[in-house]
Amino acid sequence: MKRIFCLSAVMAVLVYAGALASAVQSPEYDMGVMQMVILRADEGSLKGKDNLIVENRTRVAELVKTGQCALAAEARGGADEILVFKTQTRAEVDGIVASLPGVKAGQLKAETLAWFAARNYIRKPSADGTSSNYVFGLLVRGPKWTAERTPETEKIQKGHMDNINRLAGLGKLVLAGPFENGGDRRGVFFFKVETVEEAKALADTDPAVIAGRLKVELLPVTVATGILQ
């Protein structure tokens, strides 16, 4: 069964905050900090600017092809994108992102977050140039979130991690990990499903979501085939 793990040191900081963490690390997983960039568009201001979106995504595709950007997830039916860079150096990433056409034009707003996940689960794209559908899940603090550590929160967190491993074993959850100092943003799920409805049904089985400690914002995306397995 494929399992998703995070470093125990990260767990000590984040486990009771509802982030994704685990007390075990296996040599199979190259765990490390990467930079995740969330590009959000003001859809109103982008009306009639399809060329700018195409130009921006063409530039991102070049970054993926040359290996500068490890993963690019494009929103289906929108201009938003999720980018992942395999570096701990934020300044380097900020320079690359600032040069993107959509960001330079002020039509895309970029937010960079340090993200902890299995680096080797993000691979090189296939040479055929095809894309595959996924659903990106952004985990945020829910209405019942609290920093308090109690037997009940420990039980919920254990169930949260058990459910992550269960979904990974089913092949439905292909990548997950917590943010470092993400504030209300706690972590990320990448679901290997076609629709938001399917992803929601899976996310709703998470004990932390059921308890209201976490909620999941879902976005259907495409990722170059081969990057995620």
Question: Any overview of this molecule?
Answer:
Residues 1-27 have low confidence and may be disordered. The chain has helices at 8-14, 50-65, 90-98, 101-104, 151-169, 196-203, 207-210; strands spanning 31-41, 71-75, 81-85, 108-118, 131-141, 173-178, 185-191, 214-224. A hairpin with a 6-residue loop joins strand 6 (173-178) and strand 7. By secondary structure, it is an alpha+beta fold. The relative contact order is 0.22. The protein starts with 7 loop residues before the first helix and ends in a 5-residue tail after the last strand. The chain contains seven helices and eight strands, in the order H-E-H-E-E-H-H-E-E-H-E-E-H-H-E. It has an eight-stranded antiparallel β-sheet with strand order 4-1-3-2-8-5-7-6. It has one domain (8-224): Dimeric alpha+beta barrel (Alpha-Beta Plaits, 2-Layer Sandwich).
What would the keywords be for this entry?
Alpha-Beta Plaits, alpha+beta, single chain, disordered N terminus, 8 strands, globular, 229 residues, eight-stranded antiparallel β-sheet, 7 helices
Task: Give me a quick take on this structure.
The chain is an alpha+beta fold and 229 residues long. The chain contains seven helices and eight strands. Residues 1-27 have low confidence and may be disordered.
Number of domains: 1
Low-confidence stretches: 1-27
Strand percent estimate: 25-35%
Helix amount = 25-40%
* Overall spatial form: globular
Given the helix and strand composition, which structural class is it?
alpha+beta
The CATH topology name reads Alpha-Beta Plaits
Largest sheet: 8 strands, antiparallel
**First and last CA, distance:** 14 Å
CATH architecture: 2-Layer Sandwich
Placed side by side, the strands forming the largest sheet appear as 4-1-3-2-8-5-7-6
Helix count equals 7
CATH superfamily: Dimeric alpha+beta barrel
